[in-house]
Design a protein that fits this description.
The chain has about 220 residues and is an alpha/beta fold. It is about 30% helix and about 20% strand. The model has no long low-confidence stretch (mean pLDDT about 95).
């Protein structure tokens, strides 16, 4: 089973300017995903970007940047599945790969061991898709939900039973068959979870999440 890693990293960001290049514990945010990818068991790693700065940084770190991502796939409204399909189309002329591992730079707490373990699960379970997640039992807020009416007043209390529920963490790691992606979806018939701890499942979307991730990263010495 041949695997290829794709790291999607566009230049724009609504809430954090130049997020992928913003310093995160002394290195650009994208560095931590590049480091984890290079240390895992997969050799073929590519970055899809519209940014010359990200391209230069990636090349300096030994990562392939085979093309400049089109503008239509680099906006806030662009869909990740379209970015992946664009890459898979290019990949047809590069080599024979069957499975794609998507690693978003906004999940710097994901380690190379996580990537390897997710690949092992993909193979062992003969999955069409593996998606990282955490157990909803760690999400205490599920038992504190309140429903409001049209006026904004609390109507009733809603207690969701977290049993058998998982929460996608970005996802931090997404592995899918390339044939499935080409059909227009990341998710095939057999979808298997790769469980991570909630504290390592932060998907950075705003400055608060950025700063919390930095603290967790430092506390658990994840730069080793």
């Amino acid at each position: 089973m041949s695997f290829v890693i794709l790291i999607p990293a566009r230049s724009g960001s609504k809430r954090i300017k130049n997020k992928n290049l913003k310093l995160f514990n002394n290195h650009p945010l994208i560095y931590w995903t590049i480091k984890a990818a290079k240390k895992c068991s997969i050799n073929d790693i590519f970055i899809s970007t519209d940014s010359e700065e990200i391209k230069k940084f990636s090349l300096l770190n030994g990562i392939n940047v085979p093309f400049k991502r089109p503008k239509k796939l680099s906006s806030d409204n662009s869909l990740m599945i379209d970015v992946a399909k664009h890459f898979c189309k290019w990949l047809e002329n590069y080599g024979q790969f069957k499975n794609l591992i998507l690693l978003q730079p906004t999940s710097p707490l994901r380690t190379w061991k996580d990537i390897n373990d997710a690949v092992k699960i993909f193979k062992k379970k003969k999955a069409d898709t593996v998606v990282s997640a955490y157990d909803s039992k760690e999400l205490k807020e599920l038992t504190k939900l309140m429903q409001i009416d049209k006026t904004g007043d609390i109507q009733n209390f809603t207690d969701i039973n977290p049993k058998n529920l998982l929460v996608r963490n970005g996802p931090s790691i997404l592995i899918s068959k390339i044939q499935t992606i080409k059909s227009g979806s990341f998710y095939g018939k057999k979808i298997v979870p790769f469980l991570m701890k909630k504290k390592f499942s932060i998907d950075i979307d705003n400055i608060d999440e950025f700063e919390i991730s930095e603290m967790v990263h430092k506390k658990f010495k994840m730069d080793d």
